[in-house]
Structure prediction request, 144 residues.
Amino acid sequence: MGVDLSETACLEAAANAVLHGVDARAHVMTSDWFSRVHGRYDLIVSNPPYIPVAEMAALAPEVRRYEPWAALTDGGDGLGAYRAIAAGAAAHLTARGRVMVEIGPSQAAPVCALFAGAGLRNTRVLPDLDGRDRVVMAEAPVRE
Prediction:
């Protein structure tokens, strides 16, 4: 299942699923994070808008001009999406499920703290191929 707040992005994702022959298995829908998502998943992955609004002017022009604003920033400190993901992930993960999110270069500690505070376990940071912090991964909380 794929979700996005943008209906245009969902239509593009659905078209790509058809193009690559996975349309029978893929379900794409418009949702504000978990608002329309039901069920539990083994893996939740997100590349959320994480650029703080104060840093938007410094982005490369080809990014700033052609990427949708909402795909780049939450309009605040860049952590809004992580707050929403942390708040909803535990309820949508299977017992052995994991959540993985792309992060900006200075966001590892605050995102790990948000996930740990939401009860997610074994939160850790994974580097990209250049050795920079790039992904925060966490496991579902222990359920009794």
The chain has two domains: 1-31, 38-139. The mean pLDDT is 94.
